Amino acid sequence: MKGIHSILVTFALLAIACSIASAFDPSPLQDFCVAIKDAKDGVFVNGKFCKDPKLAVAEDFFFSGLNKPGNTTNLVGSNVTTVNVDQIPGLNTLGISLVRIDYEPGGENPPHTHPRGTEILVVIEGTLYVGFVTSNPDNRLFAKVLYPGDVFVFPIGLIHFQFNVGKTEAVAFAGLSSQNAGVITIANAVFGSNPPINPDVLTRAFQLDKNVVTYLQSKF
Hints:
alpha+beta; 13 strands; 20% helix; 5-stranded antiparallel β-sheet
């Protein structure tokens, strides 16, 4: 009986470990897996086909351009330059990616989430007010003003933001714990979905007048 109990405990621990591991990019079982679009002579791993390792070249692990400011002439006054598996095929299965974020004065990277990755951000120039909100029921805000050299972490899946509170342009770089962390911008998803969410749903959810909801939907 004791032996059966031990076996059951072992299987339970394995199940928990597997469920935790599957929440992040799977660990690679090879040195690298350079992503390719053509399935010919490839193996499907982590959402991409892998190039034959013998055909890999240095360019598969290279990207140039993060020294160049992004265009912040838009409604939110920011620009995110992404370097993930789509830009560097060699990132496939490695569970990491990078972004550069440029902000005009008063610009922001609006509230959003990364469903598949934790983010660690470092400010290079300017002053940013950043934060994230925990899940229900607490919805606790963790926020701080960051200066050059300061670092802040946004846990996986939680809504977070950055806002340039300075009078000059700001620049930050961030690493993410996924080759493709994904991004869901809250306002765009809620008010700009395709097809639109029934206004009655949003009216009740946000406790707003229906005319306000339809106006917000028209903006996205």
